[in-house]
Fold this protein.
Amino acid sequence: MTLTQLEYVLAVHEHKHFGRAAKSCFVTQPTLSMQLQKLEEELQITIFDRAKNPIEVTAEGEVVVEQAKKIILEHKKLYSIVEESKSEIQGSFRLAVIPTLSPFIIPMFAKSFNENFPKVNLHITESKTEDIIRMLKDDEIDAGLLVTPLHEKNIKERKLYYEPFYLFVSEDHHLAKKELIKEDELDINEIWLLNKGNCFRDQVLRMCSKTRGQNLTNPIDFESGNFETLKNMVLAGSGYTVLPHMAIQQLPEGQKKLVRRMAAPAPIREVSLVHKKDCVKQKILGVLEEEILANVPDDLREMDKDGQQIIEIL
């Protein structure tokens, strides 16, 4: 039995197809098939049901797949432990960021991090909260940048900063006449939302909890995957939306007049760097945290949660 054979097992399990699995491993299909056959002969079991389309793992093969995951993970951890023991900070690091943070926070720290730690190969992907949690548990990533608290017992949360929410209101809307907006003044039928799966959407719905039970009467049922489209809907003269502080900071001066603050306790979100408690890449985690904090605007880094209301994810 070899590590290569176990990697082939995991590839077939993931792709459920020998050809695609071989391609992902950069080998020919006959090579992959031959190695899997040798492993099955050595173990005297059939790992995959080749008669099924897509290919399925047999009941006895499930045990092999689960053990293969553990062995490959421990093998990768060994390299990480060795890298961690070296005085110079180096190695690979996989970071996932939620879509409502990535447009603002990644440009803030990515360049300086690369300049200060050139021997760290930082892989950054954009994923939704539920996917980041799953990838952390499956050791597909090393850390995530997202909104907390998560209430996950095996995940450590390193709080970075608090970020307030603001209302972006069309100029002819009656709320535009007010300086401060109370949560109970928000109407679910007038607010433009991000689409389902975005944690920011869940937080906004929590803010509108007093009107969530109302029937939807807005004739246009539209949801977007980004803040830019929501802003454009408001600028077109319809309703309002909720934007985080960093999005407000990037507005042209002429559009900032449409921003309204929320009355106390003002809603905020808690942004954290999260990772599994047994993550071995502590040095990289430490410098990544420091680099992000060094580049976050001072007003966010210094904000205290006292007198604010942390809006959790649904």
